[in-house]
Specification:
Blueprint lengths: L1 H19 L5 H15 L4 H27 L15 E9 L4 E6 L2 E7 L10 E8 L2 E6 L9
């Protein structure tokens, strides 16, 4: 009878694992297989439950660090991140008070604002300090820099 129970447990835990795709019950599948082997070997119910609990806990302890590394949230870099620190050229005078300004960088024209509030005239070389949404915040460059095209 317990052989059928452990087979059902293996299937149930495997189905839960397949549905969640988050490695939440795989340890119980391993524990159920071990308990099934204990049942086939003729052990009583209490030793079967003990084997299930110990093997499940051991599987969790061994694989948990791997699962954490696998499920760790990784920052998703965007193509726009490469603009930070890059050079650009002002194509429309940047004036924060009048909400105007555009910069040509990385082959595109971006809406731009001055990072320090200064008015930056068209044609000025700038360095991209930060990005908020699709708006670049820039500072005028003192030295001549290569514009990314």
């Amino acid at each position: 009878m317990m052989i059928v129970v452990w087979i059902c447990a293996i299937v149930a835990f495997a189905v839960v694992e397949a549905i969640t795709v988050g490695l939440v019950s795989i340890w119980f599948v391993v524990g159920s297989v071990a308990a099934l082997l204990a049942a086939v070997a003729g052990l009583a119910l209490l030793p079967q439950l003990t084997v299930f609990a110990l093997v499940s806990a051991a599987a969790l302890a061994v694989t948990r660090p791997l699962v954490r590394r696998f499920n760790a949230a990784r920052p998703t870099p965007t193509n726009a991140d490469r603009l930070l620190g890059a050079a650009g050229k002002v194509t429309e005078t940047i004036d924060n008070e009048n909400a105007t300004g555009a910069v040509y960088a990385d082959g595109k024209t971006w809406t731009a604002r001055s990072a320090d509030g200064a008015v930056i005239p068209a044609g000025t070389q700038v360095r991209i300090e930060r990005m908020e949404g699709v708006k670049l915040f820039v500072k005028a460059c003192e030295e001549k820099t290569e514009v990314t095209v």
